[in-house]
Specification:
Layout lengths: L24 H11 L6 E5 L5 H8 L4 E6 L2 H14 L5 E5 L2 H8 L5 E6 L8 H10 L3 E12 L10 E9 L2 E8 L4 H11 L1
Parallel strand pairs: 1-2, 1-4, 2-3, 4-5
Antiparallel strand pairs: 5-7, 6-7
Length: 194
Amino acid sequence: MRITGGRFAGRRLDVPRAEVRPTADRVRESLFGRLGDLAGKRVLDLFAGSGALGFEALSRGATSVVFVDRSPLVLATLRKNAERLGVEDAIELRRGDAHAVLRRLAGNRPFDLAFLDPPYASGRLAATLGALAAAELLAQGALVVAESDRRHPPGPVEGLAAIDERRYGDTLITWFVPRGPATAAIRAREASDA
């Protein structure tokens, strides 16, 4: 698998031999094309798997990424990829269940962008989105990008407002923002960009 854009465009990433489902190149290209400049952004990559989303964010200017996964094999592969790219100082690896890690992260500096890509069959997306919102780990104006099977969309999430969704074959990408005074302005901005 290769990084699709930014300073590491074309660089290869090792994919863990564990059961991971990397986000397809065309989905990543479209997603990051919409995200634009990520300079200075702090990113959370839950259910990191291949780490493709987090490394793509670093390639496109993000300052740091916290990768979360329960598999030691996945985390070892992510560390190896970070070393190969020379970004080991820009990443943090957290092992454990996503909900438990979110509780441990509570009180840390908030994230500007969060990716959630749990195994499609796990049925954990909506609950994890709710846990992320409840943990108060999202900066004002943060974006949350959730990947799911199009037949199992995340549905409404307390504390988050869905502002957009895009389908790519069987993959559904849903964009959320924290609920609050800024939600209406962000919805208007996203509608004008569409």
